[in-house]
Amino acid sequence: MAFYNPFARHQEITRANIVWYRILTAFTWLLSFIPTIYYTFHAPHDHITPHRHYHHSHTIFGQSTAHPTPFTINYVFVYIYWIAMFIGQIGYVWHLFADNEVWVKAACSVGPHFILFNLLNFAHIMLWTRAHFIFAEIALAINFLQLTSLYFRHSLPARPTNHHTTHPHTEADYVSLSTIKTIHIPTVSMPLVWTFFALFWNGAVMVHCHDAMVCRVLANVAIWGIVPFAGTFLFGYGDWTVGLATAFLAAGLGVGQFFMKTYALQWIFAFTIMAIVVLSTLSLTAPMGSAVHTGERAPLLAEDA
């Protein structure tokens, strides 16, 4: 007996699948969104009784304040990033419920991974606010792996530099920029970049990386891992959306570290990395801008799922 595998590369999208995608996507998105908003302003109370107070439970950013690390990002940047991502995901859900068959199939192509992202993000928020940092790191690691798998299936292929190549991209290889903005950015690139930074942030808290000199030195080295991460998607896939998201969070990391420890290298490295990623992204978007003026469309969002 054959079982339905929602993560299969060429899984046929049927009417029944679409119904389940719609139900599970809406439910899991709310499961991810509501706790994120709630625990931004409220600490968990499930471990608190009249005779016992669980001192390790905090709000999302209260937990970060209680455990400052060399990878703590400025809260304002995180707020802005989350707002942009969640608003974009509302647009994605709207595409999933639209009457346009092309939009629905494009949205369904990332549906299983988006549902899994929501579940794991919910798990991370619940564990992080309750100071279960090891399990929170495991949830982040699984999420990063499954988002990476999603990206390799639904990436932005690198634009050929030679338009006279013997294997030129056909019209079917391109979709509108609006589809990239409403599906690829909020469900693929932004969640992937956020999870990557969260791995460093949560991991530093997990190993109690605060003011110890050895830990600071290791953090000064580890932060440069952001450059090959962004470079892989920028130059391997020509994905400027990952570049912009990475540059924004690198800037937030720089601001957070500057106000946390002014006389240190971490914030200098963060801003240097931001500049490198921004310049690299601009080197890709400039040719794309000229292509838009000539009527060329943007790279394909996703392969056949």
Overall description:
This protein has 305 residues and is mainly alpha-helical. 67% of the residues lie in helices and 1% in strands. The chain has eleven helices and two strands. The protein has a two-stranded antiparallel sheet. Helix 5 runs antiparallel to helix 6 and helix 10 runs antiparallel to helix 11 (266-293). It is globular and about 55 Å long.
Task: Estimate the strand proportion.
Answer: under 5%
Main β-sheet, spatial strand arrangement: 1-2
Q: List the helices and strands in order.
A: HHHHHHEHHHHHE
Chain-averaged pLDDT: 83
State the helicity in percent bands.
55-70%
From the alpha carbons, calculate the radius of gyration and give it in angstroms. 20 Å
| Structural class label | mainly alpha
| First and last CA, distance | 22 Å
Low-confidence stretches: 158-174, 291-305
- Shape from CA axes? globular
Query: Biggest sheet: strands, sense, closure?
Result: 2 strands, antiparallel
Q: If helices are DSSP runs of H or I spanning 4 or more residues, what is the number of helices?
A: 11
Strand count: 2
Task: List its salient traits.
disordered C terminus; single chain; 67% helix; 305 residues; 11 helices; mainly alpha
Short description:
The chain is an all-alpha fold.
Q: Secondary structure elements and their pairing?
A:
Elements: H1 15-41, H2 60-66, H3 75-96, H4 101-108, H5 111-129, H6 133-153, E1 174-175, H7 177-206, H8 213-222, H9 226-237, H10 240-260, H11 266-293, E2 298-299
Antiparallel strand pairs: 1-2
